[in-house]
Amino acid sequence: MSQPRSATSTTFPLDRAVIRRFLEEQKLDLRTASIREINRLVGTIERDQGVRFIRMEFGIPGLPAHPVAIEAEIRALREQDVAHVYAPFDGVSALKEEAARFVERFMGVVVPPSCCIPTIGTMEGCFASLAVAGRLTRSRRTVLFLDPGFPVNRLQARFLGLGVRSLDFYDHRGPRLVDAVDSLAAGGDICAILWSSPNNPTWIALDESELLGLGRVCDRHGIVAIEDLAYFGMDVRRGVPRPGTPPYQPTVLRSTKHAISLISASKMFSYAGQRIGIAVLSPDLAAMEAEELVEFFGTRSVGHAFSHGVLYPIAACVPQAPQYGLLALLRAANAGDESVFAPAAEYARRAAIMKRKFLENGFRLVYDNDLGRPLADGFYFTVCHPAYASGVELLRELLRYGISAITLETTGSCRKEGLRACASLVGDDLFDELGERLRRFAEEQSS
Amino acid sequence: MSQPRSATSTTFPLDRAVIRRFLEEQKLDLRTASIREINRLVGTIERDQGVRFIRMEFGIPGLPAHPVAIEAEIRALREQDVAHVYAPFDGVSALKEEAARFVERFMGVVVPPSCCIPTIGTMEGCFASLAVAGRLTRSRRTVLFLDPGFPVNRLQARFLGLGVRSLDFYDHRGPRLVDAVDSLAAGGDICAILWSSPNNPTWIALDESELLGLGRVCDRHGIVAIEDLAYFGMDVRRGVPRPGTPPYQPTVLRSTKHAISLISASKMFSYAGQRIGIAVLSPDLAAMEAEELVEFFGTRSVGHAFSHGVLYPIAACVPQAPQYGLLALLRAANAGDESVFAPAAEYARRAAIMKRKFLENGFRLVYDNDLGRPLADGFYFTVCHPAYASGVELLRELLRYGISAITLETTGSCRKEGLRACASLVGDDLFDELGERLRRFAEEQSS
Questions:
Q1: Which of A338, A312, A340 is nearest to A326 (CA)?
Q2: Is the pTM of this model over 0.90?
Q3: What domains can you pick out in chain B, each with its CATH number?
């Protein structure tokens, strides 16, 4: 296997036939290809062609995990001897308690530790949330996605046999968003509304008035609000999170009794490889009972169904050592150690530079404002190019220049022309190269 | 919280009203209570009454994990910097390769690394197997459990909306087992047959002729054989496993094209807390295509549905460090390091002592032979007492004596009189106490 050469624009653009060949070999349709499939495609091209891509397809943290987590895992393994013992299926007690403290100090919401349930990443938390919400009421088997979003949530709904509806942030923000959700909810078939904020992929962030409105809609119609906080604390316009000090992380937990808020350690703490997150159930939802849950989970209780009816049969429990790693991170955060929040600022710095290079070379942002304000710089941004009406075609061309991304179409967006770009893996050594490749791309467009 | 006193029989038996009160408080029905619920019940009684139970309810490894795994995890975290990076959704390559080598050396079966898929414990492997098998064909939505078995597999089937049928080993072994499975399979609604061997809870082990017969039935009817090898290499009658040397682990992989064999690290290597196992798909099954999979997984391919359609949306990937831990264990095993297999012998030693104490005090084994041969001593055994026709009543009484177990009924057994006892948590310091408590129990029976 040949090592990729150091980044250089001289070998680009690759021939269109080369890209076509790899797509055919891997039987890939760029329009529907998953992130992981694009990832594998690009890896194959890199190895085969001996080139190095600027990889923006994968929402993977590009910074090492904080030592406080690593050392806590090691202590748990060596000294606390956790490796042979199953964790409780609703999580290690100390982590549940620290998580409740974190929710109070950084979200300004009080919940008991029993409502803070560790999960194998937010992926599992989201899966469990959909599994329970989709089985509360037989007549409600449809999830409303506020789009664009994380593509895998759609795979989850499909796995669970749930229907899907979509509402796009592009033309729905503020009162218009809340009204549109309310009228869809009135249809009576919606079991849950799911969104991510700060949003993957647009980096818009729902504000308190929108969350208040969404919460009211959920309470009015008995719908579960599932809030994916994969990018908790990463809206850098709000400054570094400080315990017990506003502005708190905006959350729908404050505005509905029917909320599940999913806090991920993957991006905020750059800890994706060990798969650990926290699902926070609003206490009323956890205590709620529904007869129809019994058929699938053997219990009427929503809280019990979540941990005992889903998390337990899926994987028995969350692996032990990562729970201690996250415990240490939350403890540090709760004590005011700001170093644990460092990744957000670095991603924002990278995104600002990358966005500028795209804009200088004829691209524009697809989702280009946040309720009229400029978007924050963060983990993701969205781009399109006036010469391409189709994101698939744009991506196919960018691949020739050694630049990878995913189409907005796979994120559920109504904007077929756009791509999602992730800033996390593009470090300082690649910025000039990115600029150079985009310049050559721009040249070819105008030639 | 009061610490449990050291084990002593003087406080036992507890009053029947005390046990009743705890059951009512926790709204527990002993007949259907899950292992984890019994576990929590007993923990509560211990704390409240200041007593120490002899805990046989939980199939949890009682020995520390092997240092080779712990040190490999630590290296992965500290030196290989894996904590922030998602693993491939079909597993770390080196682990897949080492697993294929392990399958060849210890099972005598050749499969490519692509067919060895790391999972978050065998629990996730089993869940994924049922999820895929249950959706291959619309007309086949029923799982045949060879019972008794691991109770959580039934929760998995219920979660997935699959029907369940049961055939009991108690009166079906040898050709009788194969014939009975064949005639059930002829019904046309069975998608999968699932069993564990060495068996949880009876510790019987299917022999090569039974596996051959079951494999043929699966091929004939297009049914997936799901073999839970949670106790791989732990039938001590066969001696310590040696690489490339018969007797190999009996496996249905040898006798059908439609097999999934689930290899767990939890008990064999005492590694349950970190949740890591390997699902081995027979190559023909992995390559099989079925149009009906598309609706749920977006792919026709069984192998792709397994990793990309189930494992990916459930938890994104298997946590990284435990994959390196298991890699180190398999590498040691493949190189002939017998120390990694040490737990089996220790559990067998404990089980032999415990069984004797039960038998000396009027109990008998429920499943009491293995195709006419004596059962091996191992992780579990099954007991009943002639004075009790109901396992629930027997358990309720034993709880008074500070002895906990689960009913065979919850394991799907047709023998309502029995209990499952796990030997793993009962160490040398408790053997005399177990004997004394059982002696007092026996006295009360005859008084």
A1: A340
A2: yes
A3: 9-62+342-446 (3.90.1150.100), 67-338 (3.40.640.10)
